[in-house]
Design brief:
single chain; 10 helices; 15 strands; alpha/beta; 2 domains; 389 residues; Alpha-Beta Plaits; four-stranded antiparallel beta sheet
Length: 389
């Protein structure tokens, strides 16, 4: 195993940062404290902070001693509107907000890589961009960063990132070439009916029973329209309607998401959702309006970058720690950076061997401390290898 990049001092500091961010989580586009903290840390390392920046989040540039390409390392920094139920000393202190997707450890890991690479700058041929991105959970942060124009001034040749996964045992690293994460699209359906007394439903156009039929009918897209051999999922995740047990409301609001791998599914699934919602609603004397939002393309890992990733991970932790990652139906706005340059994302295990770890986006997710130095090592080695390659 090669010499480690992350010293004990770096390890202690990034764990302190990870704990501080976990205790003070901030929602998408509101990551002001996190941005201030990261900006101060990068300045301590004499890492350049370009004038062009997103409203939240921060981009730093480490210039190597010798000329060469620019490689970008990215971490997401936002939290989720979830109340934490863990019982440990570093629980969230912000009511109703939690780092339930591991972004606190992604951030600390990237900062650790920045600390290690800053010490190596005299040996670097090229530049490293540290991209602490806001609003991944809103699927708008990457587009915001791109829209600043910073990549026109400092064009990276490659983007690398990582994501923790509790369903992978700790110490294991998932690598996959080609499609690795799904595209996504969110939708809203507003069902309008005619309310009335619960005792006289015959005098109403009940939007609640209509909504129930719409939800059930939407599942036929998966079971009777989509190719069974292609990754696809559709879920209605939010239902709001009514305020009393004996009053049929005038309307019901549904929200959901669909995920897919084939680009051709994007418009055709939207059309199916629209047709099903309107037809079912009409059959029950109601109407339906559909809105689509929060979209991201599928994530494709570049083959050459995947080879660099494999070389880096196996050199650090041994070939036995690396495996071929399955396609994951979750989505990532990291996919937008593919408009600028090739991209690659690792999936890093943080789970218990018995499979009992809480999942992402749950109130009791727990990421072990060893994750931050482990991932910092991985990002550092990846950046060094990428510049050499």
């Amino acid at each position: 195993m090669e010499q480690k990049y992350i010293t004990d001092d770096i390890r202690d500091h990034i764990l302190e940062i990870a704990h501080k961010i976990h205790k003070n989580p901030e929602l998408s586009h509101k990551e002001f404290m996190t941005t201030k903290l990261l900006t101060e840390e990068l300045k301590k390392l004499d890492i350049e902070i370009p004038e062009i920046q997103p409203k939240t989040g921060v981009v730093g540039l480490l210039r190597g001693k010798n000329p060469g390409p620019t490689v970008a390392l990215r971490a997401d920094i936002d939290a989720l509107p979830i109340e934490e139920t863990n019982e440990h000393k570093i629980c969230s202190e912000n009511t109703g907000i939690m780092h339930a997707c591991g972004h606190d450890f992604h951030t600390a890991s990237l900062l650790g890589a920045a600390m290690a690479l800053a010490e190596l700058r005299e040996n670097l041929s090229g530049n490293i961009m540290f991209l602490f991105q806001p609003a991944e959970e809103k699927c708008s942060g990457a587009e915001e960063v791109i829209s600043t124009g910073i990549f026109d001034l400092y064009p990276p040749k490659a983007f690398f990132s990582l994501h923790v996964k509790p369903d992978i045992p700790a110490g294991k690293i998932g690598i996959r070439k080609g499609p690795v994460m799904a595209a996504m699209c969110s939708f809203r359906i507003h069902i309008k009916g005619k309310g009335g007394h619960g005792a006289t439903p015959n005098l109403t156009a009940d939007p609640i029973i209509t909504a129930a039929h719409v939800i059930e009918a939407l599942q036929s897209i998966r079971s009777r329209w989509a190719d069974p051999a292609q990754p696809f999922s559709l879920s209605v995740c939010s239902v709001h309607g009514g305020s009393a047990c004996n009053v049929i409301p005038d309307d019901v609001h549904l929200e959901g998401t669909f995920r897919y791998a084939l680009d051709s599914y994007r418009d055709s699934v939207k059309e199916n959702i629209l047709n099903i919602s309107e037809s079912v609603a009409k059959a029950h004397g109601c109407s339906a309006e559909c809105e689509f939002f929060k979209e991201a393309p599928p994530l494709f890992n570049d083959e050459k970058l995947a080879d660099i990733a494999y070389k880096s991970a196996s050199a650090l932790f041994g070939e036995e720690s690396v495996f071929v990652q399955n396609f994951w139906m979750a989505s990532e706005d990291f996919s937008f950076y593919r408009e600028i340059a090739p991209v690659f994302m690792y999936h890093v295990g943080v789970g218990k061997d018995d499979g009992s770890s809480a999942g992402l986006h749950t109130p009791n997710l727990f990421v072990p401390d060893e994750t931050a130095p482990f991932c910092a090592e991985l990002l550092t080695k990846t950046a060094v290898t990428a510049l050499e390659e």
